[in-house]
Amino acid sequence: MPTRLTDWTASPLVALFFAVEVDAIDDKKPIVYHYPIEKKLIDIDRKSSPLAIRQARALQPRNHSRRVDAQAAWHIVHAIHDGPTKGIRFVPIEKMAPHKGRITQVKIDPKRVPAIRRELHDIGIKHSTVYGDFEAVCRSIGPAFGIR
Length: 148
What we know:
By secondary structure, the chain is of the alpha+beta class. It has one domain (5-145). Helix content is 27%, strand content 17%. The chain contains 6 helices and 7 strands, in the order E-H-E-H-E-H-E-E-E-E-H-H-H. The strands form 3 sheets. Strands 1-4-3 form a 3-stranded antiparallel beta sheet. A two-stranded antiparallel sheet has the order 2-7. A two-stranded antiparallel ribbon has the order 5-6. A hairpin with a 5-residue loop joins strand 5 (81-82) and strand 6. The model has no long low-confidence stretch (mean pLDDT 79).
């Protein structure tokens, strides 16, 4: 669904966790996206309306929850563009200057997903540590009892 705000993480391990968290659908491979953020992409004039930004910008949210901290969260706020039929549209970030050519895709072999999940779990990257709520704790320990 088109949205103005996308979630990103500064942690490669958390990004990998999200990429392999659910099983692949059809023949789609899990992907980790790498987007190097520069200072010029972060600055947003906090006095102006966020609806007025002309190009997507990255921002690090305030630490308002355990989840934000655990996920090393960042957000990208996308600019709104006039659509061809009197509506709003979003331009994919990879097609916008100065973002063009900055995103790298790391495709993951679906056959490796179970092993990657186990390895992430073994080093402490699991539902309970990434999400931090009771439901996540249950999802984290479920596989040990054959519950998925």
